[in-house]
Every structure is written in structure tokens, then in C-alpha cells.
């Protein structure tokens, strides 16, 4: 969620400041004894100076102040939508495969009394 918060903040601020970019990618990996974080911004050469300044400013603001409640709520809504979509996608794949038995826990059973 941390990396998503950084990406959300940067994309919003770049849009707000009118700084064009071709993509913003954040990822991490683990190596023995280290966590490696990667931030890649695909930008136009003409916007390089403004992009570097905005990037440094926004990363410092995140370091100093964290995210706002509105940004946090946007992330929660984004995750909720993804979880719901993933669940629907999972159910659809199983239905298409003909293995409907996986849905037995979701089915309502008749009352034995």
C-alpha cells in the first residue's frame, strides 16, 4: 500500500502541475538482507527539469507529512474495487471451466428441519 500511496500522490501532483509523463512505475524486490525500491518515470526530455524538481518536492512532502485522509480513502476504495473485481473474475473463471462444485460453500442449503 505504501508504494501505491507514493504513485497516487505523484500522479496527482504531476497532473495538477501540468507536467506530462509517459508513465510512472514503482516496484520493489527483495535481495539478501535488503529491500530494493524502484521508481521509474518515463518523461519527455523537455520536461526533465520540472519533473525532477516536482519529484524531489513530492517525495520530501511524503517523507515529512505522509498522505492525507483523502488519499488514504482513495487507496482504500481502489483496493476494495480490485478485491471485488478479483472475486468476480475468480468466480467467472470457475463457472466457465464447469467446476461449479467450488461454489458449494456459497450456495444456500435447505433447512433440514
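-> sequence recovered:
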Amino acid at each position: 500500500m505504501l508504494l501505491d500511496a507514493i504513485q497516487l500522490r505523484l500522479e496527482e501532483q504531476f497532473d495538477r502541475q501540468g507536467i506530462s509523463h509517459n508513465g510512472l512505475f514503482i516496484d520493489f524486490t527483495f535481495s539478501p538482507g535488503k529491500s530494493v525500491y524502484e521508481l521509474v518515470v518515463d518523461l519527455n526530455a523537455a520536461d526533465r527539469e520540472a519533473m525532477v524538481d516536482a519529484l524531489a518536492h513530492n517525495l520530501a512532502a511524503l517523507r515529512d507529512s505522509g498522505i492525507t485522509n483523502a488519499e488514504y480513502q482513495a487507496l482504500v476504495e481502489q483496493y476494495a474495487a480490485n478485491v471485488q473485481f478479483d472475486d468476480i473474475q475468480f468466480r467467472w473463471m470457475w463457472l466457465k471451466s464447469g467446476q461449479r462444485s467450488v461454489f458449494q460453500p456459497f450456495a444456500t442449503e435447505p433447512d433440514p428441519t
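Confidence is low (pLDDT under 50) at residues 100-111.
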